[in-house]
Amino acid sequence: MINSNDRITIGEMDCLVRNRAGSRRPLHHVPISNIDFASKLVILDMPRSEEESNPVSNSSPVPAGTRPQFDDLVVGAGVLGLAHAYALARRGRKVLVVERHARALGASVRNFGMIWPIGQTLGANMNLGLRSREIWLELLKNAGIWHHAGGSLHVAHHEDEAQVLTEFHAQAVEQGYDLELINAAETLRHSQAVNPQGLKLSLYSRHEAAVDPREVIATLPGYLQKAWGVRFEFGQMVRGIDGHRVVTSAGEWTASRIWVCAGDETQILYPEILTRQGMFPCKLQMLRTAAQTDGWKIGPHLAGGLTLRHYTSFAGCPTLAALKARVARETPLMDTYGIHVMASQNGRGELTIGDSHEYNPPEEPFGPISPFNTQIIDQLIMDYLRTIMVAPDLEIAERWFGVYLKHPTKLWFETAAEPHVEILTGIGGNGMTLSMGVGEQHVARVLGETGSEDALDSRFSQNSGRQAIPALA
Fold first, then answer.
1. For 312, phi and psi rounded to 5 degrees?
2. What percent of the chain shows pLDDT beyond 70?
3. Cα–Cα distance measured from residue 358 to residue 336, given in angstroms and rounded to the nearest whole number
4. Could you read off the pLDDT of 32-81 as tens digits, one per residue?
5. Rounded CA gap, 131 and 437, in Å?
6. I need a surface site. Which of 23, 292, 307, 322 has the fewest CB within 10 A?
7. CA 13 to CA 34: how far, in whole Å?
8. CA 233 to chain centre
9. How many CB atoms neighbour CB 467 within 10 A?
10. Confidence class of residue 365 from pLDDT cuts 50, 70 and 90?
11. Interatomic CA distance for residues 111 and 354, integer angstroms
12. Which helix H or strand E contains 402, and what residues bound it?
């Protein structure tokens, strides 16, 4: 229950509705301090046709008594929300997606656009990444959205990096994964973007793919509406959820089941849950160049030795500790700002480069994240990039930061927040990679489907953290 003492506080909006008996009942209050009014000005740089810019109606809910009843209402039109909407619609269900902005503007559009199974731990997690990739490629093809299934290269310019890649390759091959360890000459044949100076070898994986996240998030709603009958309502902020009712800034909707896929904005509706889980936001800085000249292509996604410190897939390599020690000794600021460096290229030829990882202290996990970029972070990223990569034009055209929500121990977090209300969040930096697979499996589990392929059943407690919590009134 929300105590009366909690309701009237400075900087909060207390949402009250009348129940059937006519009494006033509080819904989850919405901290205005968490509402980013300025974010609507971000990432509107790519020209769109009228249909792309507004693929579905922004009409308000119809008057009380005639409102449509949906099987499912999804809160959030980011990548996790779209993945859930797609999984639900494929089952023939009537789906509504409600998004607070005119277009999703959060972490789903502020990333590399990498579908990146290679970053997942060998075994069930990587298998989930590969399954998610399959769903992505089918969806992107059917929707006519640009993508490039070009794979990835992890390049080694130090002996310890080469040793870690050699160790990981042996582990992966032993478990049946199709990866190649290739010498310097073969690496340069795979990609003209690799810096040949000091190059030892590389690990090539054919499984990774590239999308433009801005294009995907802007275009998929129109496709899902046209092909699968999903309804979208943009520009409606969800103020409260009460059983089957969802109260928005424009009115009220009802649905048999509600799926909250709102990323770090989940804290607006259910701050108590996130606090109890110890969840915290991560801020990252990224950069983008203008289109490269003369049709120059990067080929596969490119990652350097710093990336071996970042992804759990390499955690079991014996030489990793020595690599980390060298980085800490030679370039300690890389650890201070959580920097590793990768590059991808979109269909317009622009290079996306990053990134850093900054966290609030444990004693204040949802404390203020600086709204400003730090120049030294951008400089560190670009200086390192030039040691592993060459390109015609590395002048930066755009800079931004993104924020995603992360669980301290789990790959993502899901729970039944109330009867008929499901939350899935905290997927960290794995959203583009895992969203389609996670959405598919989450929907299958919650709907109680039998015989569905669910690679996560045996490891719920380790990775997904699904649990029921008392209903919040």
1. -65, -20
2. 79
3. 8
4. 233 332 332 222 222 233 333 344 444 445 445 545 489 999 999 999 99
5. 6
6. 23
7. 11
8. 21
9. 13
10. low
11. 9
12. strand 396-406
Distance CA 123, CA 168 (A): 13
Token duo for residue 250: 């424009």
Residues contacting residue 186 through CB under 8 Å, at least 6 positions apart: none
Identify the three-state secondary structure at position 144: coil
Cα–Cα nearest to 267, from 36, 464, 96: 36
DSSP 148: E
Selection from 287, 282, 386, 300 nearest residue 116 by Cα: 300
442, burial (CB in 10 Å: exposed 0-12, middle 13-18, buried 19+): buried
CA distances from 134 to 77, 115, 140, 332, 345 (A): 21, 10, 10, 39, 20
Residue ranges of the alpha helices (H) in 258-319?
A: 266-269, 271-277
Angle at 35 between CA 12 and CA 23, to 5 degrees: 40
Supply 32's token pair.
């205005």
Of the candidates 189, 184, 186, the residue with the CA atom closest to the CA atom of residue 201: 184
Domains belonging to the chain, first-starting first, are: 4-46+56-108+213-274+410-468 (3.50.50.60), 154-202+280-406 (3.30.9.10)
DSSP 3-state of 61: coil
| pLDDT tens string 164-177 | 999 999 999 999 99
